[in-house]
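Hi U.,

Before I forget, here's the chain from the pilot set. I'm dumping it here mostly so it's searchable later in email.
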Amino acid sequence: MPNLTEALTAESSKSGAVDDCLALIDAEVSEKGGLSGLAIKAGYRTIQGIKPGFVRQVVTDLLPEFARALEPLYQEAKANGRTVREHFNANATRVADALLTITDDKAKLGPQLGADVSKTSALEIGQASSVAQAIGTGL
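Structure:
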């Protein structure tokens, strides 16, 4: 069975994978409502204005770690004859937890790695339930 990390980070597919992630992030940010939605949208626009390309770089840097974290679920899908989309949707909470573990670990290292990494925690698009919902719409 092919490895998810290799599939997503190969030069032939990495740009497309990053573009898909950015489209999902943009869609999730634009769909946020209420006061927290306004704050998320303002923060997202501010980061894009102050440091263009920042979100793309963060996604590019995190993609291999995200792929490694999702590898067990990917292999489960393949072993059970399910599509990755179907399996990830059925296990959206597990997927979200795997992804949020990566970003939470990075946020904890923020003071050691510099301000940019700690800002990614502030830009997270909500808690696990929001990520799980995004997974369902993004696949």
